[in-house]
Amino acid sequence: MPLIADGPTDLVSLLIVEDEPRYLDSTRQLLAPHLGRIDTAMNGVQALAWLSRHHYDLVLLDLHLPDTTGHALMAHLREQQPASRVIVMSGDSRIESAIHSIRLGSYDYLRKPCEPEELIKTVRNAAHKVVLEQANQLMREQIEQSEEWHRLLVNTSPDVIYTLDRDSRFTFLNESIGRILGYLPQELVGKSYEVLVPELELERARYRLNERRNGNRATRNLELRLKRKESPLTPNHEATVTVEISATGMYRPQPDGSGEFLGTHGVARDISARKQAEATITFQAHHDLLTGLPNRSLFNDRVTQAIAQARRHGQSLAIMFLDMDRFKLVNDTLGHLVGDGLLQGMSQRLRDCLREGDTLARIGGDEFMLLLPLVRSRDNAAFIAQKILASLKHPFHIDGHEIYSGMSIGISVFPEDGDNLETLSKHADLAMYHAKDHGRNDFRFFTHELHRTLSGRLAVENDMRRGIQRGEFEMYYQPQVDIQSQRISGMEALIRWHHPERGLVAPGDFIPIAEECGLITPISKWVLDVACKQAKVWRAAGMAPISMGVNLSTREIEHPHFVDNFIKSLNNHGIDGKGIEIEITESTLMRDMDGAIEKLRRLAELGVKISIDDFGTGYSSLSYLKKLPVHTLKIDRSFIQDLVASSNGGTIVAGITAMAKGLKLNVVAEGVETHTQLDYLESIGCDAYQGYLFSQPVAVDNATKLLRAS
Ligand code: C2E
Ligand code: MG
Ligand code: MG
Question: What is the pTM of this model?
Fold first, then answer.
């Protein structure tokens, strides 16, 4: 037998079992240089003793032993050390004996006596085989190990890894298919991938996934929905999962340089979470988070589409601009959480007034817009506006507060009032201001006259800038009358604007806009200067000492240099603070109590008096008044009007008056128009009043006449 391989066999172990001592010895000597460990046994007992302690790669076995047969020993060996190779030595030359040995699993057979070279060759051959086999075994183990690693890697991959045969049937899927779609790999192997694709996506999937292309042209990152396995255990699962899938053709190279198409392999990644996040972001980009309503950009989109549609079909549509009345006051006095609650309640109420297909959007703090895509007539739009206003008759209950909130609504209609988004929006905005002008909580349609007379917020702003430069403002004065003596005790300075086109404009129509755009600062400076100057003139003319009331807006008091500017004005006109009374509304104080206290104290130290204007309209309690250097409460006109309308109003006015007296405050009633009102006020001990009954606000000349007469 030729040598199978050359290589070190010095680690191969051998047990020689031979009863003839000389033969045993010579065999051992012959083989010693070629092998590692060699042990010897002269009978079955010795042999068994060695075998119980060691493993032998080779056993050289004499069949003829004194205490047992070689065949019995072989049977034992096959049981205990099946990896050992047995080379049988026998003097028995019969072929049956050799066959029997081979049946029992001997590796080779040597006839005794044998030539030394043959012995060596046979044993070395066997030793080489052992070495080779061991190397093979090691390799097999390594391969198994690395296969296991690969399987582990493939199965723990978060992505589905798959192969398809040339007929698009799965040949392999890793276990991720279970996590993502709920299938066991073996449930799908042999089936077409199409069982996973929803009907609607089949066409696209076929085009991209029957993939024969590879390299750069292969399908990558195809977004596809796959069906999840239906399962009674997870009935609420989405029926499909969005994956990003790749597919590449597999080819076996052919001798002619071409390739034989074998199928497709690829990876599918679950991207539902990402899709969800994208959907959320898209939603947020187009919606107002507080109310969940569409925002301006989505609203504009819808309007643009609706206009196109209406134009095509010769239909009309309406746009409404809705502005909450006095929302700022709620926010300032009750806090932002209540303000937020009111906005949410408001959007719900508005929604309840609408039909499917209408779009309601929140486009700013307290501003909403509404698109009514199908209005047959203006009456239609008016009906919706009335419905909205009616729904606001009931109060909102937020955080323990009962809040009434009105809306001013402006409406523009396509195509009469404009044929594009911008014009329609602008005109609805204008109409809304018109509604506010007419007492709020009302709606107005855009009209072309309106456009001419009142040109919206921006125009007002521009006009106002020009008005300041051109001196279009004038101060009017309204007397405050002491109820006991019936003499004028003070004058309230009230600003007027002589608009070149609009005529005399009341402060309610421009002061809020001036506050918003910052023009209030120059206006306030003007007001203060004029009031100080006039106070000095009247004093110098020897009139009885009266107080000069000056209204100050919230914004002005919040100005960091408010007190310094105030003092500067007094100094410029050479008058002290006594005789000046500033009027601040409740909401101003509530907004920044601490800041206001500090500033008002400094003014009070100069002798300036402080009165709370429109008292009763805010949501504040009287308790804060103790903290402030307040001198006067001016009871809001609405309560005085109520004196006639109901007896309830009387109790409120009486209550406020009594409390104010308790706090040692001066009480002035605003808006007194009738003798009945005046009599009542006198009966409850009110100090002074102001109102048309005595005089409307008048220009300076008339005010001076009134003073002289008093
Ligand atoms: P206010 O300080 O409460 O002023 C009283 C308002 O009630 C004045 O309106 C006055 O004309 C009106 N009024 C007085 N008596 C009667 C009456 O018997 N019946 C009725 N129906 N109304 C009466 P006006 O002048 O339009 O001012 C409105 C508001 O604008 C003022 O309310 C004040 O808050 C603000 N305001 C006026 N002038 C200025 C100013 O110079 N600066 C600032 N920041 N605000 C001003
Ligand atoms: Mg006032
Ligand atoms: Mg007032």
Answer: 0.47
Q: Which residues of 490-501 are buried (b: 16+ CB within 10 A; e: fewer)?
A: bbbbbbbbebee
In tens, the pLDDT along 513-536 reads: 888 777 888 899 999 999 999 999
Ligand 1 mutation pick, 440, 481, 494, 505, max ligand atoms within 8 A of CB: 494
Q: Pick from 540, 612, 609, 622: which is nearest to 577 by CA?
A: 609
Q: How many CA atoms lie within 13 A of 234 on its CB side?
A: 12
Q: Identify the residue with better confidence: 430 or 449.
A: 430
The whole-angstrom separation of Cα 187 and Cα 164 is 14
> What is the pLDDT at residue 6?
55
Work out the angle at residue 455's Cα, subtended by the Cα atoms of residues 449 and 458, and round it to the nearest 5 degrees.
Answer: 170
Tokens standing for 272? 């539902």
> Superfamily for 468-709?
EAL domain (3.20.20.450)
Domain ranges of the chain: 14-143, 149-277, 287-446, 468-709
pLDDT tens-place string over residues 214-236:
777 777 888 999 999 887 666 56
Ligand 1 interacting residues, C-beta cut-off 6 A:
478, 494-495, 506-508, 511, 527, 551-553, 583, 613-614, 637, 670-673, 690-692, 697
For the domain bounded by 149-277, which CATH number is listed?
3.30.450.20
Taking the centre of ligand 1 as the mean of its atom positions, its distance from the CA of residue 613, in whole angstroms, is: 10
Q: Residue 640 carries which side chain, given as an amino acid letter?
A: I
Architecture of the CATH domain 287-446: 2-Layer Sandwich (3.30)
What DSSP character marks residue 63? S
Report the first-to-last Cα separation within the chain, whole angstroms.
147
Q: DSSP label at 69?
A: B
Q: Which residues contact 50 (CB under 8 A, 6 or more apart)?
A: 15, 39, 41, 56
DSSP string, 118-172: HHHHHHHHHHHHHHHHHHHHHHHHHHHHHHHHHHHHHHH-SSEEEEEETTSBEEE
Of 8-12, 355-359, 586-590, 640-644, which one has max mean pLDDT? 355-359
Question: Which of 53-57, 170-174, 277-281, 665-669 has the weakest average pLDDT?
Answer: 277-281
Superfamily of segment(s) 14-143: Response regulator (3.40.50.2300)
